[in-house]
From TrEMBL:
Swiss-Prot/TrEMBL keywords: Plasmid
Domain GST C-terminal: 83-208
Organism: Peteryoungia algae
UniProt name for this protein: Glutathione S-transferase family protein
Lineage, broadest ranks: Bacteria, Pseudomonadati, Pseudomonadota, Alphaproteobacteria, Hyphomicrobiales
Similarity section: Belongs to the GST superfamily.
Length: 208
């Protein structure tokens, strides 16, 4: 079983989950800068040309990070993707996150962190709108976390890793979240988990 990844937001979730669950798989880095995601071999795994992708079984593949996290939880017999009455609530937060919280956080990550790497300035109008939207939805999450350790039933789940996907880039992406104390406390708690703190395999040094 292989997990194709690169060091970006969505693969970070899948890699963190794989490490947290001690999944028996091989990490395969995809070099996006050199277009490895556009090769015929990779497009056969994911026609979208994106990572992460999990290859398993007899040539089967699964794409989308949230689906991969759930699959790995089932495969390892864990409770990370719950099958009890918590599941609808986890689903709710996964859906809300994709449509609201990480959607706008990822926009700021792209504008403030990725675009400058390619010699491009952030788009001020896009940044302003994303900041406005992120603050709005951060208030919802912050209020929800006011008396909770984790997002659902005070037990770690795929919802936590999904919602926190952009938070490791809080400073570099200039996410306007400093006023949300409960989000900060929750992410500090996640950072005590080694798999979340360091999800990616170490890359070989230039000399070795």
């Amino acid at each position: 079983m292989k997990l194709f990844y690169c060091e970006t937001l969505n693969p970070r979730k899948a890699c963190a989950a794989a490490r947290y669950l001690n999944a028996d798989l091989e990490f395969v880095r995809v070099d996006l800068a050199n277009g490895e995601q556009r090769t015929p071999e990779f497009l056969a795994l994911n026609p979208n040309g994106k990572v992460p992708v999990l290859q398993y079984g007899d040539g089967q593949s699964l794409w989308e990070a949230n689906a991969i996290m759930c699959f790995l939880s089932d495969m390892t017999g864990a409770d990370f993707w719950p099958k009890d009455d918590r599941q609808p609530d986890v689903m709710r937060w996964l859906s809300w996150d994709a449509s609201h919280f990480t959607l706008h956080a990822a926009t700021l990550w792209f504008e403030n962190e990725l675009r400058p790497l390619f010699g491009q300035a952030p788009d001020p109008a896009v940044v302003e709108q994303a900041e406005l939207q992120l603050r709005q939805f951060a208030q919802v999450l912050d209020s929800h976390l006011a008396h909770r350790i984790f997002v659902v039933a005070d037990r770690l789940s795929v919802a936590d890793f999904a919602l926190a996907a952009a938070l490791p880039y809080w400073r570099s992406a200039r996410l306007p979240l400093d006023d949300f104390e409960h989000i900060k406390r929750w992410h500090d708690q996640l950072n005590t988990i080694p798999a979340w703190r360091e999800p990616f395999p170490a890359r070989p040094s230039a000399g070795g």
